[in-house]
Each structure stands twice: as C-alpha cells, then as structure tokens.
Amino acid sequence: MSIEDYGGGQTQDSDFLVVTTNDAPGFRVERVIGEVFGLTVRSRHLGSQIGAGLKSMVGGELKGLTKTLVETRNQAMARLVDQARARGANGVLMMRFDVSEAADVGTEVCAYGTAVVLARTDAG
Length: 124
What we know:
Largest sheet: 4 strands, mixed
Organism: Actinacidiphila polyblastidii
Number of domains: 1
Number of strands: 4
Shape: elongated
InterPro entries: UPF0145_dom_sf, UPF0145_YbjQ-like
Protein name: UPF0145 protein V2S66_24945
CATH architecture: 2-Layer Sandwich
CATH class: Alpha Beta
Family: Belongs to the UPF0145 family.
C-alpha cells in the first residue's frame, strides 16, 4: 500500500504516514499494532554550553542548541518509524514528543505513538 499522494503530516518516506491526530482523513485503520517509540539522548559539548551561558545574559535564540534539538528530534522520529516498520506498520497515529534532561549530561528526546496498518478509503 502506498500513501504517496497524501499531503499532510508525512515523513520523508512517501509510503509511511506519521500524524499527531487520532485518525488520518482518507484512510481507515485496518490493524492496530501498538505503541512504538524512538529514543535518543544527546549531550551538549562544552563550547555550546559556554556559548549558551553567554547568550542567556543578553537574550536571543541559542542557535547551537536549537540545531542540536532539531537533529535530536529528527533522529528520534527516524527511530520511531524504523521500529513501526519493523513491526509491520505503515503509519503512526497520535505521535508525540517527550523531552527531558538525562542525568544532567544531555537531553533525552522520545518520539512515541501508535503503530497502525492504514488503507486508503474509497473516495466513491
């Protein structure tokens, strides 16, 4: 089954759909596989820590930390999709991110949701 013509909320892979909603318009859930997650922990290097400390004194975006968090989020999402595919899914519903500090050495990002097998509904 291909989901390539569905435009919203999809991952880089056109045959896999990840949405934050409980359902995906235009699709029906054929089978619920269950919870899946992708987890990664990233440490901050000393340079970005010092830079962030200095930047916090004057205000503004912490671009180095922003870049690290975006990369971390993308890695967690890729791992989520990999786990769901390995279990036979072609979609994840109700995807969420959870972010927390990991033992004061880094940031833990977990992407999680419900792996499902989706089929296109007939438009009639």
